[in-house]
Every structure is written in C-alpha cells, then in structure tokens.
Amino acid sequence: MKPLNRVVASIPPSGIRRFFELASNRADVISLGIGEPDFVTPWRVREAAIYSIEKGYTTYTANAGTRELRNLIAEHYRERYGASYDPDSQIVVTSGVSEALDIALRALVEPGDEIIVFEPCYVSYGPCVTMAGGTPVMVPTASSDGFIVDPDRVRRHVTSRTKAMLICSPGNPTGAVQPPDVVEALAEIAIQNDLYILADDIYAQLVYGVRHSSFAELEAVADRTVILNGLSKSMAMTGWRVGFVCAPEPVAALMLKIHQYTALCAPHTSQMAAAEALRNGEGETRRMVAAYDVRRRYLVSALNDAGLPCALPDGAFYVFPSVAPTGLSSEVFAERLLTEAGVAVVPGSVFGPSGEGHVRCSYAAPFPVLEQAVERIRQFTGLIGSDRQPSQTKQDPRVAARQGEQAYAV
Amino acid sequence: MRHDELPEDSGSSGSSQQGSCHGASSSTILTTDVHRTFSMQPILDILESDARTSPAQIAERLGMSESDVRTAIAEWERTGVIRRYKAIIDRDAIGDDRVVAYIDVSVTPERGAGFDEVASRIARFREVRSVVLVSGGHDLRVVVEGESIRAVSSFVSERLATLDRVTATNTHFELKRYKDDGVMLFDREDDHRLAVTP
Fold it and tell me: How far is residue A372 from each of residues A4, A271, A326, A340, B177, measured CA to CA in Å?
C-alpha cells in the first residue's frame, strides 16, 4: 500500500495518552491529572442550552458564529482589555480553542516557517505547528524563573524564517502568568522582527491576586496579534467545544475560509450556551476562582510539606512541583506514584524538556479528593525519600504558600 | 429535639455554650477586630458548606495554625455568629411523614414595636421552625412543623390565628422537597471526566 502522510505519521503520540491508559486500568486511582474543571457547567448556562434546543435552535449558524455571540465576545474584550474587535470581520467562533489554534496556524504558516513555542507547554502546540507545515522552535523557560519567559532568550531563537510566537498565559502545565513587562518585551520583539503573536488566553480569567496581561491590550501589535480563547476553563465548558478567535481582519478572513470549508460552524447549542455564559456568567467564574484559590494555596503548602518543592503559581489550576528530591525522573515518579500510591499526576516531561524534574498536579478537584491525594503522596515520598530532613520541610512550605497572600492573611 | 443535637465529630469545640447566646450581640467580634473577622471569613465559608470539617483540616486548607482556627470558631460560638451545627436530612428518603407547612401571616403592627413583638411571640412556639418578615401581600412567613396535618392545622387555628394582632393566615402544606438549604435532594451529578486529560 502507498504510504500514509509522513508528517502525521512521524509525530509521536502524546505522552499523556500512556498515563491515561495506566490510570484507567486501576480502580482506586485518585486523579490530579485532569486538565479540566471539576465543576459542572453552571446550571444557568445548561438551562439556556436546553431552552435553545426546545426552541429549535438546532441549525447551522453563520460560519463565523451567531451575531449575538460575536457581539458579546467583542464586548468582553472591550470591557476587559479595552481592545476593539469588529464582530463582522475580526471574530470567528470555533469548536474550542483547539480548532482556533489549528486554523490560525494553517492561515499563517508556509512550508519551512518557524514558530516559537515556549515550553513546557500544552501538548498540542508542537504537533499542530508541524501538521500545519511549520517547524516548532521550542524556547525553554526555567523553573528558577518561575517559568516566566526570558525575552533575551527569545531574541536568540529568532531567525529569518520565524513567522510567529505562540504563548499561553496563564500557562498549562506551570500556572505561570507572564507579567506585563514580559508581554511588552515580546510585543517589541514581534514588531522588530515582523512576527505574528498567537496568544492562547484560555486560562485568562483564572488568576489569583494578579492581573492577566493580554496582548489584546497592546495597540502597537493589534495588526499582528491573534487572540485564541474560549469558555472551557472559565465557565467549566470543556465538553461544549466552543472557542473563538479575535484577529486582524486579513488573518481572520483566511481563518474563516478554512473554518467554513472544514468545520462550517461551531455547534449551535454550544454557541447559545456560550452567549449565556458571557452575558451572565461572571459571578459563576468568580465563585470558581475563589474555590481554586483556596485549593491552590493548600496544595502548594501540602506538596512542600511532602518534600516536593513547589512554587505558588498565579494562574490556571495547576501546580508544578519538583520531584528532584526523590532522585526520580518525572516519568518514573509519576508512574510509581500511580502504581504504588494510586495517585495520577502528569510527568512534566510530556510538556517539553524543561518540564523534566517536575510533575503537573491539577487542583481542579474537590477538597476531600485533594486531601486524600496529599495523604497518599506524603506516604509515598516518605517511603522513597527517607534521607530528607523533615524538620526543614515542616517550616518552609507555609512561608512559600503565604507569599503574595492577601485575602487569607492571618 | 433534634435541633439540639450536634453532628458527631463536628469539629467544634466549646459548642456547649450554644443555646445560651440568644440576644448576645453578634456584632461584638466586628467591633473588636474588624480586620481579623474579615480575614477569617473563609473559615465560615468552609463550615457553612461542611460543618464537619475539622479545625485541623481548615487550618491546613487555609494555611493557618490550628489554634487560630479553634480560637476563631470558639469566639463565633460564644458571640452567636455561629448559632448551631446541623445536618441536612432528606426525610422523604427514610419515610418520615412529619408535616411541614408554610404560613403567610398578616398582622397589625404594634405602635413602638412594629412587627418585632408579635414575631417574637410566634417564634417562641416549639412547633415553629422559622419566622421571617417579608414584603408583599402578607407580613410574616412562618414555617411550622408537626407530626401530622391535624397537629399542624390545630396549631395554626388554635394558637397562631388566635394571637391578638394576627388578622389572617394562609397555610401551604409542603408536598415535596427538592432542594434544602442549597443542597439538591435528588439527581446527584457524577464526575464524568476522564482519568487523565491534557
């Protein structure tokens, strides 16, 4: 038989896949490996979707999405970031950010183009660039910098073939929120080198005590910034598959062309639900963020206590502790933790080489689950790391957890 | 009687003082240390959603010391900010045929005391679970609980309706309870997420 597509065939399967299978084969697993909210979509949003089905909104919509939803998206970005996007020509509603990322890359990339990707990062970035015909150029971020991007390092990776940079803040798997000065420095690099900016804002609303700086705020790069966002994380709507893109008109036009030939439109029901979420969901998001915040502090403190050094990230719902003190690689640690202690986490190495030595723990889990997981992790690290000094690990974590603490100051 | 029972292991210390705190000024803690009360608010949030969370657990979740949590709780119990720890029970599930009625009560307010005097008279009956002053066509909304429809009816007609300032009552018997105090009594939502996702 003739060969299948070599580009696709050469892409390795996601490292998460193996852990999913390992975890699924065990009955008593407590999972901190889930990259989606533990909350169910707020009822008012579900109710709006049910109503829309009852009323017969079951058709195709305009390719770019319903007018109402595009207006609400434009309003959201205007209110939150002072950005102005024309709902007619600059906004496309997609089937989740995944589709938005895919069509953005396909609209931008020509064979041989390089796309700068900051790792550790979401597992799809590299493969999506490759499948679009480009070359991902992985720029590492360091644990010692709190996984904040170093603009100088970025400059060293820019070549004449660089077309764009792809950045996610707050980030998966680290929870790192890129500060305003870094966002501005990257924008400057983009201008100097004529690069597009692909900004994955999906975790934008999940920040704790800091403000999210979006590239959408920077007028100077408005003509080269493609914002990718959706409601999966902020409104617990992962399964609805509804996202959107805000982009300069020429980019949006090309994306829309790909979208109309391949996806046609995002699911109508999901668009109706998304509209309700944007219209009336802010309080729901605030409630979820408050819950994540308490869990975040708890988990960071508890992991430090268990001998896994862990910074307090400012966003998303992940913490990214180091497993270095155990002497194990992140892959071995995660596998042993799963098989010996029944706790699923994701090895940092699946998110890129700089993730090695860390594991991703999600706190999108209710407190009793977190507490049980922590208990098991404590026992596990206690068994394999008996040469640690327990007196020291008793003190430090609280200090670490309290840095930047405001609302719950004692 | 069950109102006076604490859930086992409720994690509260010093709960023996409850019941003696009627009228104690619940604002005491606010005036003594506003900032402290504000920062302790998350403890109340946790207790309100699950009163059995132990002070040790709360302390760990919030990054506080256990003794601070115990002190705050004891203070709230003393001043009446925390009134009681109770369970939310689905009585239908155990075939309990106790009867609950919601009674709209119209009253003539009293010069000088407004509605307080008559509301307090009503509230003192053991059969009465709650009394609130409401806006709209009636004045007080009273929740009454009894062993049978007959018992509740006779309480309303003999004790409530005959009170001096009560001018009218309108009784609604509870038929089925779907949600109680923020808790759904049917249709639990399970976790449908996969074990590990990107």
Answer: 46, 37, 21, 15, 33
Answer yes or no: do A23 and B196 touch at CB < 8 A: yes
> Helix axis angle, B34-49 relative to B55-62, nearest 10°?
120
ipTM > 0.95 (yes/no): no
Q: Which fold has domain B98-175?
A: Alpha-Beta Plaits (3.30.70)
pLDDT digit string, tens, across residues B124-172: 999 999 999 999 999 999 999 999 999 999 999 999 999 989 999 999 9
> How far does B63 lie from chain A, in Å, by closest CA?
6
Domains and CATH numbers, chain A: 6-41+283-402 (3.90.1150.10), 57-280 (3.40.640.10)
Q: How many CB pairs under 8 A join A and B?
A: 72
Query: What's the pLDDT at A359?
Result: 98
pLDDT tens sequence across A382-391 = 988 654 444 4
pLDDT recorded at residue B123: 95
CA distance A58 to B195: 31
Note the pTM of the prediction, 2 decimals.
Answer: 0.82
Domains of chain B: which residue ranges? 2-79, 98-175
Torsions phi, psi for A128 (to 5 deg): -65, -40
pLDDT higher than 60, residue A223 = yes
- Among partner residues B63, B68, B195, which is closest to A297 by beta-carbon distance? B63
Instruction: Please judge whether B39 and A408 are an interchain contact, meaning their C-beta atoms are less than 8 angstroms apart.
Output: yes
Residues A353, A240 contacting (CB under 8 angstroms): no
